[in-house]
Amino acid sequence: MVSLFSKFVFAGERICSKGVYFISCIAFLCGITSFYVFAEQTERFPNWLFHFRGLSRPFPIEASLKGNEVDMSSVLSALERVTKSPYDYISEIDFIVSEVSETISLLCGKSQLPETCKEKANTELQKTQNKIYQALENQILYPLDHQPIGEASAPRSLKQSMDALDFDCLEKCNNSGLINVLRYSSSADYSQLYDKIKSQNGTCQKNILDALTKELEYEEFPKRCLEEENKNHPVCKSMLKDINIVRDRVFDIVELAYGPETLKTTEAAAPCLDCMSKDRGENESVNLFSDLIANIQKQIQCHKLKPGQEKRVYSGTERDDSYNMKKESDGTYSVSLNLKFSADEDYDGNVPKDQVPAHYMKWVQKCMDKANQKMLGPNGEQLKIVIKSPQKQDPRCRDIDTKEIAIGSIDHRSNSGKYKADIDCPTITHEILHLLGLCDEYEERSRGYYVDAKTGKVEGYTQSVFNEKDETNQKFKNKEGYQFKPAYDCRVTITNSIMSNQYKRWDNVFRDGKNDSLLNPGQFNAILYGSCSEKNKTFNECSQLAYKSSVTEKDCMEKKQQCEEQNDLGMNRGEEIERIKKEIERLEGHLAQYEKPYNKGSYPDKITKRLPRLREELKAVESWPDTNE
């Protein structure tokens, strides 16, 4: 296990960074490398000591003392306070020790008597190490499997931590003793703790989990351990062992707090999860807990809400979206979105610019009120999308990310981040559903690549092949030897979908009654259960092809074919069969008119080409699994 000496060195360095007993701390840290080293070297102290604080000043000569002259009592007193915090206890401590040894070799190598220098420095190092062992035996928690000399039972401080756990404090998500107990307790001690947690109510269990996720966020793991050549180093393996023990024990509490039987609400976990999930800057250690985060999120994503419950849904498709969902008392699933509208530079609409935010907020909600009438699931579930203004948030939606939407010119091609000035309800519905994770399902014909027909090399890209003023089009469009390949050709395309042709689906539902819902079953489940692989594995995997091109990803066309053959975007099998049969019947009726003597031989080409394709499509749909089963 990790040596106590190194823990002390690192903790001392941490104390220095907080300005506590600064001279004593620095004296201690440099003293272990011996007066004989620093008396000869006045150059800058090695960067490793100061990298936490970004200091680059010369090492203070007045602090260059021998190890036996260091004020050990003051350093130990400060250390005792600091090491009670799990934030500071385990970190890159062993590398501090190794760097001390390297520093001895480096600086003594410049000495007139290098071997004598090393011998004296290492002697001071050993003296200090012995002092540390003697001073710390009864002051800090020891690592698993390590006992001080002459002591066979568990450290007394561990039992004290067990007894001191104040579950009332967990209401504040800040019980710092919990991680220590989880990390250093024996199986028997942990069993006692688990029983104690198990006996608490659901709210307390979730607060415990909040405390754990917040403390894990501050865990530090040496970046050098993340490097391939260091992964099997004994120090790294030892630290990983400790981390894995904590992670596995947290899993137990996850199951308690968020298991299907005990789950009361999931909104309490959302802030902690978001905090863990966001970019931690240079703190790469969060990656070590990615499976913990994924496990907790899976528990939440796959949970079927009961009336009154809420959860944060994380999209599992190509889009990186999240939103809050609540199941109302009447069984409706309500999704809240915070939208902020503004007039863009090219805005040319009829509404004055200063009235754009209020006008479009009202217009978008009016459209969603209409769409909400037909946001139905495969089993009759009802979805409702509520648009909220960031200026008028209620407490329940404060954690919802604000989506800023610009309003552009009348000629602008609408997308989820910018609407054309005269945007209509079917298009608004399409774009809002993007914010709930749904991807486009239409065939992209405008954007694409110009590829050398012989070599396959990409020579250019255009946002619109129809834009004659585009320089790329002017260069390659009519040039022999070049092919235009539409972007996103790996996308799984669906003809009857709000994410493919919003006008057709809108009319099928509201005008013609061909579909009961604006959403296909797979889309509805994707909104309800997000990244839950148990519910949406194939849908999410196929949706991830939506913005991929065979020009850049060679195997995506094969994946696309598999998705289309297996109905992995979750179409309603019964509705599709009925729709295709009606279309075949309609076209056959037209052909019957042309079978009459006076029309014979003048069959319209479009019908004769369309019918065989429809019959093949019908066979394929009839082989689909029923999404309602």
Descriptive account of the structure:
The protein has 629 residues and is α/β, with parallel strands linked by helices. It has 25 helices and 9 strands. It folds into 4 domains: 4-136, no CATH class; 156-301; 314-437 and 493-524, no CATH class; 573-629. It has helices spanning 4-17, 22-31, 35-38, 47-50, 72-82, 86-89, 93-108, 114-136, 156-164, 177-184, 187-198, 202-217, 223-226, 234-258, 270-277, 290-301, 356-372, 425-434, 471-476, 502-510, 521-529, 533-543, 556-566, 573-594, 605-622; strands at residues 310-314, 322-327, 333-343, 383-388, 402-407, 418-419, 448-452, 458-462, 482-486. Strands 1, 2, 3, 4, 5 and 6 form a 6-stranded mixed beta sheet that branches. The chain is extended, with a radius of gyration of 33 Å. Residues 1-97, 132-162, 168-175, 260-289 and 393-398 have low confidence and may be disordered.
Summarize the structure.
The chain is built from 25 helices and nine strands. The protein has 629 residues and is an alpha/beta fold. The strands form two sheets. Strands 1, 2, 3, 4, 5 and 6 form a six-stranded mixed sheet that branches. A three-stranded antiparallel sheet has the order 8-7-9.
List keywords for this structure.
single chain, 629 residues, alpha/beta, 4 domains, six-stranded mixed sheet, three-stranded antiparallel sheet, 47% helix, disordered N terminus
